[in-house]
Amino acid sequence: MKSLLLLCTLCLEPVCQDPAPTAQSPAPRALDVITLKNGDQLEGRITAEVDGYVELTMGPGETVGISRSQVGSVQRGVGPLLAAVDAKVPASSEWFVLYDAHGSAVGWLHTAVQVGGDGGLTVSEEYEFVEGRRRYQITSMCTAAPGLVPISSYFRERISNPMLTSVILPAVADGQSDRIVEERIVEAKTSGDRLHVMRLDRAGRHERQLEWAPGATFPLLARTLARHRGVAVEAAKAFDPALEELVVCSFSEARQRLVTLGGTATKVTEIAETTATTRNSTWIDANLQTVRRELAGPSLVALQSSAESARFAVGGIRVASSVVGEQGGEFGLWVPNPAWQVQDGMPPGQVVLTCDAHSATISLTKLDHFEPDTSLDAAADAVSRWFRLLHPGLRVDGRADIPIRDRKAVQLLAKGRSGKAGMRAEIDVIAHRGQFLALVCLAPAAAWDELAPDFEFLRRSIELSPQALSPTLQGPLAPTKSQAPEVRAQKRDTASAPARPAPIVRIPSDG
Fold first, then answer.
1. Which residues pair with 55 in a beta bridge?
2. Which of 464, 465, 454 is nearest to 362 (CA)?
3. Backbone phi, psi, residue 55, to 5°
4. How far is CA 503 from CA 278, 361, 487, 498, in A?
5. What are 353-360's contacts with CB under 8 Å, separation 24+?
6. How far apart are CA 460 and CA 444, in angstroms?
7. H-only helix segments in 326-447
8. What are the pLDDT digits (tens) for 472-504?
9. What was the pLDDT predicted at 20?
10. How far apart (Å, rounded) are the C-alpha atoms in residues 237 and 154?
């Protein structure tokens, strides 16, 4: 009996700033107004407001930073209403290479939006990837009527053993000689307040009905509209055909951030999608092209490619690993995204990440010099003194008891200056195997709001056991109701656990 590794793919994070728009009519938003001391007024959306600095987005790709010394007043939500984005979604076609947590190319993804003459939409995603000698092929599609009203959803999943000498995904391989291991088709159609669901698999045809509430949608359609409109969507109900159940997903408001791509500092727009189990981010460039998309956090990411190269990438090119451990493999960190780079050559007991675009750092250090009976509070006191020696311009002015994963921790908050720049830091002292770890997130105050979600991700995903640092992560498939009971139980446990980069389930197969 071999094992099949499958993972869930849908997610994103809510931002509670504006009333949630419906799928048919996004809510208008009032602009923020900054009045300068010379009398000039600037209108837009405030995206950062920290010590000595205010950042205002005045339009797509147009963000200005203003020194507090120039600002007379800041007023939120008092300007004119920003009209809702036109509901006409443009047609698109994008290709990606899929990379696992180790940075290996494992498959490809094609997404497309087709616009009908009447204004209706067809949104589709197609995956293909390989694990060992297993080939996975997934097609997902949904349609919407004019006014973006959901109509239908289609999902097809095929798992096969290619009868070929090579397991790489050649374009000429049509799969006709494959031995099918598992296959299912799920179709869903709306009819008033009911959703008719049909499933076809080896066991035959099964039909059922679900309640279809006003405003309900499909994940593909919700994701497409969230990207197009850029406004926050809270608790959208959607029927996910991969899971064959109704789910709740939320979308953050689009926000700009500065990242390093190919060695160049680049501004991208980030939209995050959250479900009950995980959070995925999508980066969009100034040309409205998707440059990076998470399917299971950093465990499975899609990077922009072309139709000609995406299908041949498997087993060839690599990118940086998404997880890094200290030399002894005792603990480690998931790299939040490519804006952060791993600092090489660190001694045992330490992991360091750097963000060149903002001169920010993250470090995780083992503190093993304390006496065995040292309390967590006493260790935090010692770390506070150590931090002040390393950063004399910063003062620790906050302290709180917090949980990190399953461990007790003390969080220290520090502010101050390093040269002319305002700086902030969060220092988490974590109990670990009779000793302690110190997680230090240090960044300029002007960039703190932009980087805060990355720091939160680190706390959610920090790995505190050696076993977690050697993940076998493959594929954008979700566990289904046809799988073994122990798998469904593990899935429920994953949903109640702290958020992690990728919920992994191991499924027995008959191969």
1. 48, 65
2. 454
3. -115, 130
4. 8, 27, 12, 10
5. 353/324, 355/260, 355/443, 355/451, 356/260, 356/265, 357/258, 357/259, 357/260, 357/265, 358/258, 358/443, 358/444, 358/447, 358/450, 358/451, 359/443, 359/444, 360/441, 360/442, 360/443, 360/444, 360/447, 360/451
6. 22
7. 376-390
8. 433 333 334 443 333 333 333 333 333 333 322
9. 38
10. 17
Of the pLDDT bands very low, low, confident and very high (cuts 50, 70, 90), residue 110 is: very high
Kind and range of the H or E element at 498? none
* CB-count exposure of residue 87 (10 Å: 0-12, 13-18, 19+): middle
Q: Which token pair is 155?
A: 């999902």
Tens of pLDDT, residue by residue over 136-172, are 889 999 999 988 899 999 999 998 887 654 444 443 3
Return the H-helix or E-strand segment holding 448: helix 448-461
Q: Please state the separation of Cα 510 from the chain's center in Å.
A: 33
Q: Which residue has the tokens 């010394």?
A: 69
pLDDT one-digit tens code per residue, 225-249: 888 888 888 888 999 998 999 999 9
pTM to 2 decimal places: 0.67
Return mean pLDDT, the chain: 78
Degrees, nearest 5: CA angle 348-297-290: 120
Does position 386 have pLDDT exceeding 80, yes or no? Answer: yes
- CA–CA separation, 440 and 361 (whole Å): 8
Give 318's DSSP letter.
Answer: B
Of residues 341, 358, 386, the one with CA closest to residue 445: 358
Pairwise CA distance, residues 2 & 188, whole Å: 32
Nearest to 235 by CA among 199, 289, 273: 273
180 CB neighbour count, 10 Å cutoff: 12
Task: Give CA–CA dist 420/46, Å, rounded.
Answer: 24
Q: Which two tokens stand for residue 63?
A: 């963000």
Yes or no: say if 457 and 336 are a contact pair by the CB < 8 Å rule.
Answer: yes
Neighbours of 118 (CB within 10 A): 8
Higher pLDDT, 362 or 85: 362
250-281: b or e for each residue (b if 16 or more CB lie within 10 Å)? bbbbbbbbbbbeeeeebebbbbbbbbebbbbb
User: What is the predicted pLDDT for the residue at 29?
Assistant: 52
Using one digit for the tens of pLDDT, what is the confidence trace for 53-71? 777 776 544 667 788 788 8
How far out from the chain centre does Cα 444 lie?
23
